[in-house]
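User: Could you check the structure of this?
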Amino acid sequence: MKMGRVASRAIVVLFLLALVAGFASAEPIDGPTVLKKMLEAEGSAAFTAYQVTTLARGPSLTSEQIVYRAGFSGMRTEYMEPPRLKGEISADDGRVAAHLIPRAKVLRIGPSRLAALKMRTEQAALAFRRGNMKVELVGSDKIAGRNAYVIQVKPRLRAKGPTRKFWVDSEKWIKLKTEDIAPDGATASMSYYTRIDFVNTIPHEKFRLEPPPGFRVERQAPADLVPIDKAQESAGFRVLAPTYLPPGFKLVGAAVQSFRRGRLVVIRYTDGVSSFSLFETPERVLKPRFLARLHEGPVRPRKGIYSWQVGNLNLTIVGQLPIDQIRKVASSVK
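Assistant: Sure, the predicted structure tokens are below.
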């Protein structure tokens, strides 16, 4: 009997020692830790989920999707709502991105976007390591029935700028909800899961699409980002670039695309948290009515979009930047 009591006490002591050791070695939970784990999980977690996405700026749109993710290896989105999007499917197997549009009976095929997603994640991780992000743990919540840490991420070098909030699964470290908040404090977009199921693997065939009978196939040319001087070689016009960038922003690259009767150059900039793009095309490409408005001065079709002219070149900035920063970038384009 006495030996039994001794053994029981020993087990209790060992349990307490293990518990204390576990607490002592546990990584402290703060904003930077949660962001680090979230970025690490982005490329490896496999799951299926039901998702709701709302775009609040411009024409408001809420959609519902079923999502399949296998890290950076595969992604599939099936649209259930609204009616005009129902039945559309986007799938990406890391080599080809396909978009099935039933109402148009078309399957659009283009280059994979997963490499770009991986690059953006790596850029965010680099900006975090360099201290360019201000990351705060602002609370906890429950999303899709799972416990989540809520973190807020914003550029450290700008007092006013776009902010992103992430609800991060406290066990799997996957984003369960994301909010993009514009510089004026309004929510620009929001996406969250209503249900999520983590799995070991997803068959790779899930990320491929074949055209159904009667569907035509449209192939889209790659739009790989290149240095601006390389884009200049195929643009057909002189490409302009800003001499001023908001603090923390750097050039990512440029792409040249076919656009109506000419060419369109897109130059992308990012600070690791947010990004903006500068679009350039000759005035002969644009519609006369929009050109007439441009001739009267800078045009803002809606928030986050700013268009103007330099000579016979039309330029548009798209991004959630404060309007004073947009104007400063625009005035420096030469």
